[in-house]
Please model this.
Amino acid sequence: MKRLVPLLAAMLMAAPAVSAPAGPPDTLEARPPIHVRGNATVAPTAYAPSQIRHAYGFDRLNVDGSSVVVGIVDAYDDPAIAGDLQKFISQFNLKPMHGLSAADPCTVSAGPHPCFQKVFAQGKARTDGGWALEMSLDVEWSHAIAPGADIVLVEAANGRVSSLLTAVDVAVTYGARIVSMSWGGSEFSTESGSDSHFNHSGVTFVASSGDAGTGVIWPAASPYVVGVGGTTLPLDATGNLTGSETAWSGSGGGISAYETEPGYQSGYPIPASGSKRGIPDVSYDADPGTGVSVYDSTNYQGQKGWFSVGGTSAGAPQWSALFALADQGRAALSSNSTGSSPVYHAAASAVYGSNYRDITSGSNGSCATCTARTGYDFVTGLGSPLANNIVPYLNTH
Model:
């Protein structure tokens, strides 16, 4: 069987040796696109894993991500993350993980599995409440979707993009086959020179597209990254849709100012973009009004406990977990010198309706390209996953 081909691996060619372009400006800060609805509570009030798993079809799969390492990259330190993940697991009766107590240590390389391991990219940093809540969201919901996968959480020393890129590199050295990045910053003129951080054979990189409506952030703009936009997902108590899934008004999206349109988009094709990269590629529930339950015991704006959380931050770790499910049981990476990237290949006309829920209404602004439409759009990309179909499709293509 084939392993999941990363976003642009099918189109890479050796480049001549050149001097390294400038990296991101030292002052460029990233932020996690996370939104909290209401106050913290003593019990969860937002969507539970069972609802989301049913809404997207994960509960119809027989894979759990075993043997796959998911890397999660965030900034600063969350000293309580292991205990928060354990609370989440206990609350929703999820598969246990090793590494959540001193009495049960593990490493993602040696096990026992599934293992949660936290590492510091540049040494232990101070605690930041906003980033700590982001970490809780990322690890809890990655585990909710791929409960058999290992998780390596790599904490950057601060929120500078340059520091986070170092953490991305560390995640790869720890064997992550999928790297989740629920953060982003403003585009910068030399960003293509930093895209090499996401150009690793056999590794898929996923990033949130932003939460300020129309507009593009990096690294979601990188052609080597799967950018995840946001939707509003109305569900009943068991996870059945009570209405159409629509574009969330905060979903980041648009046309990159600097990145060239990659072949997998021009060949699809996406709407006219002036030969520039379109964002996002796919979408997922992000509206805080249809948010997910997250447990966080680190002080966030004076509160602790169960939070109702939205933002495109919620989509990146869950799409990363989806890729982990698709990667499960694969042999060595099968290189393919032709063809498009997997998420666009999975949107070919013959299989599009079975692999994606096309988002055709809602907007993220008032511009000409700010409204969801049939097929690809600059608000929700190709659409949201129908996991029961797209996971096995990705596993075999």
Summary: Residues 299 and 363 are 34 Å apart (CA to CA).
